[in-house]
C-alpha cells in the first residue's frame, strides 16, 4: 500500500492499530485515576458526565501522540516497511554468503545467531538400542535448512537432518535397516561398520523406492555412514552422512557422551545455497561445522558436571 509516497504493509497497519488501542487504554486508565483522585479530594462529584467528556478528549489526544511516537521510533530503527521494488527484483542468487574466515565479524555473526530460529542439533549420544536386532529407518528427503546464521542451504538429508540419525548399537547386535528414497534422484547407503558386498548392499535406490539392508556390527568403533552414489563427493557434501557408534561387547565405563560429526559446506552463494562442486573438489569450504550448523553450540553449549567423565 502506498501512502504519501511511503509504503505500508498490513503488518504496519496492524501495529498502528494495536498501539492506538494500547495507548487509548493507558490514557483512559490514567484519566480514571485522576477522576478518582478528584472525587477523593471533593473537587468533582462522582459520576459527573460533564467532567468525563474533557478527560476522554485528552485521552484520545494522548493516545494519538503515543501512537505517532511509537510508529516513528519503529520506522527510524527498521527503515522502510517493505523492500523497495528495486530490491525485490534483485535476484537472491546474486547475494554472496559470508565466508567462515577470521575476517568475518564475530559480533555480526553472533548477532545473526541470536536472531536465528533454528534449534541446535542434539549432540548427546542416545542410549544403546535394545534387543538382538536393531531396526533403523532412514529416509532421504530434500530439505532447505540453516547451515549457519542466516545461511540457508538446499540439502539432501537422511531423516530431514544433517548429519543423519546417530546409530548407537553394541558389538554383536544385528542391524535391520530400511532405506527409503524420497529424494529427487538416486541415492544409496554405505556403512563403514558393515562387512558386506558393496555392489549388493550399497546399490543405488531410485526415487520412491526402498531397500532392506542387514548386517551384524562385528567391530566396536566410531564409523561413518554416507550416500555413495556417484559423484559421492557431491552427495556427502550435500549432507548425506552420519555417525554410527558400536560399543564394545564389554561396556565402557559410564560417561556423559557426545557425538560431534564434523562436516563442511561448499556454497554457491544463492539463497537457498546449492553445492559449489569446484569448491568441494578444491577442499575450500565456506563453513566448517559440527553436527551440520555453524556456531550452534555457542549459545547452546554442551554441559558436564565438575569431575564428570566425558566422552566424545
Ligand atoms: Cu545421495
Description:
The chain has 312 residues and is α/β, with parallel strands linked by helices. The chain folds into two domains: 2-45 and 53-77; 112-311, Immunoglobulin-like (Sandwich), CATH 2.60.40. Helices cover 29% and strands 24% of the residues. It is built from seven helices and 14 strands. The strands form five sheets. The chain has a four-stranded mixed β-sheet with strand order 4-3-6-8, with no helix packed on it. Strands 5-10-9-7 form a four-stranded mixed β-sheet. It has a two-stranded antiparallel sheet with strand order 1-2. β1 (2-3) and β2 (6-7) form a beta hairpin. α1 runs antiparallel to α2. The longest helix is centred in the first third of the chain and has 31 residues, at 10-40. It starts with a strand and ends with a strand. Residues 156, 187, 227, 229, 235, 240 line the site of copper (II) ion.
Strand order of the largest sheet: 4-3-6-8
Helix proportion: 25-40%
Low-confidence stretches: 1-9, 46-52, 76-115
Major sheet attributes: 4 strands, mixed
How much of the sequence lies in strands comes to: 15-25%
Provide a count of the helices.
7
Bound molecules: copper (II) ion
Strand/helix succession: EEHHHHEEEEEHEEHEEEHEE
Number of domains: 2
Q: Kindly report the CATH topology of the largest domain.
A: Immunoglobulin-like
- Rounded to an integer in angstroms, the radius of gyration calculated over CA atoms is 30 Å
CATH homologous superfamily of the largest domain? Cupredoxins -  blue copper proteins
CATH level-1 class of the largest domain: Mainly Beta
The helix/strand class is alpha/beta
Distance between the termini: 55 Å
Q: Average pLDDT value?
A: 78
Amino acid at each position: 500500500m502506498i501512502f504519501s509516497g511511503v509504503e505500508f504493509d498490513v503488518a504496519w497497519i496492524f501495529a498502528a492499530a494495536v498501539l492506538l488501542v494500547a495507548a487509548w487504554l493507558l490514557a483512559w486508565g490514567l484519566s480514571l485515576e485522576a477522576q478518582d483522585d478528584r472525587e477523593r479530594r471533593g473537587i468533582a462529584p462522582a459520576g459527573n458526565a460533564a467532567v468525563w467528556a474533557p478527560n476522554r478528549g485528552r485521552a484520545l489526544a494522548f493516545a494519538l501522540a503515543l501512537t505517532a511516537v511509537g510508529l516513528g521510533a519503529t520506522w527510524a530503527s527498521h527503515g522502510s516497511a517493505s523492500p523497495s521494488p528495486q530490491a525485490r527484483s534483485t535476484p537472491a542468487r546474486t547475494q554472496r554468503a559470508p565466508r567462515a574466515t577470521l575476517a568475518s565479524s564475530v559480533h555480526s555473526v553472533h548477532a545473526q545467531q541470536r536472531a536465528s530460529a533454528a534449534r541446535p542439533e542434539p549432540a548427546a549420544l542416545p542410549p544403546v538400542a535394545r534387543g538382538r536386532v536393531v531396526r533403523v529407518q532412514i529416509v532421504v528427503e530434500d530439505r532447505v535448512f540453516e547451515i549457519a546464521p542466516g545461511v540457508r542451504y538446499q540439502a539432501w538429508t537422511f531423516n530431514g537432518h544433517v548429519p543423519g540419525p546417530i546409530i548407537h548399537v553394541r558389538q554383536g547386535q544385528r542391524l535391520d535397516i530400511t532405506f527409503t528414497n524420497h529424494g529427487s534422484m538416486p541415492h544409496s547407503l554405505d556403512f563403514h561398520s558393515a562387512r558386506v558386498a558393496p555392489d549388493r548392499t550399497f546399490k543405488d535406490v531410485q526415487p520412491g523406492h526402498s531397500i532392506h539392508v542387514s548386517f551384524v556390527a562385528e567391530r566396536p568403533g566410531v564409523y561413518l555412514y554416507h550416500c555413495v552414489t556417484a559423484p559421492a563427493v557431491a552427495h556427502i557434501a550435500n549432507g548425506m552422512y552420519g555417525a554410527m557408534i558400536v560399543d564394545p561387547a564389554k561396556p565402557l565405563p559410564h560417561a556423559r557422551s557426545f557425538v560431534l560429526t564434523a562436516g563442511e559446506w561448499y556454497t554457491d552463494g544463492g539463497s537457498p545455497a546449492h553445492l559449489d562442486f569446484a569448491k568441494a573438489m578444491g577442499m575450500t569450504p565456506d563453513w566448517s561445522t559440527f553436527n551440520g550448523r555453524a556456531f550452534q553450540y555457542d549459545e547452546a553449549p554442551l554441559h558436564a558436571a565438575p569431575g564428570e567423565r566425558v566422552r566424545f
